[in-house]
Write the structure tokens for this entry.
Amino acid sequence: MKNALISAGIATLLLAGATAARAGDSKPVLPEAIAESDLAATSGGASPINLALSKQTLTALNTGNQVNGESVVTGNVNVDPSAFNGFNGIGNFVFNTGNNNNLQGSLSVTILTPAN
């Protein structure tokens, strides 16, 4: 049985490789090249238009949960004053003490530089 599974796995890998090789034969359709004169007039950061787009989809489902009891204690959040010592950068810190909660965090960073 073990040999049959190994043989089946090898056959699957060989078939996947052959399919990938055939798929690599077709060349992607590329857009037309930019004219040299247009390219010469373009440089990074030269555009006066700043555009930043961010699309994030967060979904969560929380169903069928129960909390039963006379008194439900979820605890405290204690963050030591030195908890973030040495931290550099942009952080997204989420603390939760609730019951049957969904927590979702999302962070977008956009950096716009002035035109040259």
User: Anything to note?
Assistant: Helices lie at 2-24, 36-40.
